[in-house]
Write a structure and sequence with these properties.
The complex is a heterodimer of chains A (191) and B (144). With 191 residues, chain A is mostly beta strands. Chain A is built from 3 helices and 4 strands. The longest helix of chain A has 8 residues, at 35-42. Classes of the chains: A mainly beta (191), B alpha+beta (144). Strand 1 (116-126) of chain A pairs antiparallel with strand 2 (79-87) of chain B.
């Protein structure tokens, strides 16, 4: 019997486009947004905007404290990589990943197994400013799209999720649409 | 940082190009700063196992590049409302230089707010690598 087309493995996802997969209560990130963490976010970008590091300038422009760059909102809504009581480094293999990671994105239980992923697309509406002292949480994962595709790096699907980021007052500060390409790399090496 | 007013902006105005040489060091710093520790961005062995030729810039770093370019244009009193069409179409590896460019597509007033739409993209040594996308921003209005 012929093996079914690999694209058919993604059909359950396609059939559930529009479904909300995560209606669990918001779980806030481990840390409040901090001035020092914002400053470090600026470093690799050489992002010289005093709204993000000078509280006097930020206040003069109507913000309560230094302003978080919009592009940093996902960073400050990640779950912690490690929490007290956990062991995440369980292997001494050179390239072993930790036992869990906060940056793998949402995975639906009906997704086919894949071994690799990366983010490809981001759409965002920025609804309220986020300042030092705020605490963020990502809420919800609604499946917006699933397109199986074979690319240069492997076979998989482009999967788009929508979620809200809320602050400590449960106000929506940003609505994010994120697309991941989840795939199994081509056997045999480099693209 | 110069503060433009909405009335100063015309369709076709160009953002000042922002240049970002990509190095391993920069990608490691970015992973620490934006907490995208996916090893495809810092470990060449892992990147190659996933089909990429080398490590590459993560999308948070690339979005930050866009934000830096837009902020330079809209000034401290400007506010970014949305970003659409950010799409990484090819990888940005160490040895590439990413240049963010953009231009104003339209300007309009909405509920007494001065808005602009910017067409924005990133180029590297091989062409456009991110976008083109659209950013909508609000600028202060000249008060009569």
């Amino acid at each position: 019997m012929a093996e079914p087309d690999w694209r058919q493995h993604w059909q359950p996802m396609i059939d559930n486009i529009g479904k909300q997969f995560d209606d669990s209560p918001a779980v806030f990130s481990a840390d409040v947004v901090e001035r020092s963490a914002i400053r470090r976010y600026l470093e690799p970008l050489e992002f010289d905007c005093p709204l993000h590091y000078d509280v006097d300038v930020a206040r003069a422009h109507g913000y309560r404290d230094v302003l978080l760059p919009n592009s940093a909102i996902p960073t400050f809504s990640y779950a912690p990589m490690w929490q007290p009581g956990e062991t995440i480094f369980t292997s001494d293999k050179r390239n072993a990943p930790p036992a869990k990671t906060a940056v793998a994105g949402f995975r639906a239980p009906i997704e086919p197994e894949t071994s690799a992923f990366f983010a490809t697309n981001y759409d965002a509406d920025y609804l309220l400013p986020v300042c030092a002292g705020d605490r963020l949480s990502r809420r919800g994962s609604r499946l917006l799209d699933c397109k199986p595709k074979e690319t240069r790096v492997g076979r998989g699907a482009f999967i788009t999720w929508e979620s809200d980021v809320v602050n400590q007052d449960f106000e929506v500060v940003a609505r994010l649409q994120t697309t991941f390409f989840r795939y199994n790399p081509h056997v045999g090496g480099d693209a | 940082m110069k503060q433009r007013l909405w009335q100063d902006i015309s369709v076709g105005d160009e953002l000042k190009a922002q240049t970002f040489p990509i190095t391993v060091y920069r990608l490691v710093m970015a992973a620490g700063a934006n907490r995208d520790f996916n090893a495809i961005h810092t470990n060449p062995e892992v990147a190659k196992q996933t089909g990429a030729p080398d490590i590459y810039a993560n999308t948070l770093l690339l979005q930050g590049m866009w934000e830096k370019a837009v902020r330079q244009f809209i000034g401290l009193a400007g506010r970014v409302r949305s970003q659409k069409g950010f799409r990484m179409s090819s990888f940005n590896h160490p040895g590439d230089t990413v240049v963010v460019k953009g231009r104003v597509l339209r300007t309009w007033l909405e509920n007494d707010k001065g808005l602009i739409e910017i067409d924005i993209w990133s180029e590297n040594n091989h062409g456009v690598s991110v976008g083109p996308g659209r950013v909508i921003a609000e600028l202060p209005l000249q008060q009569d």
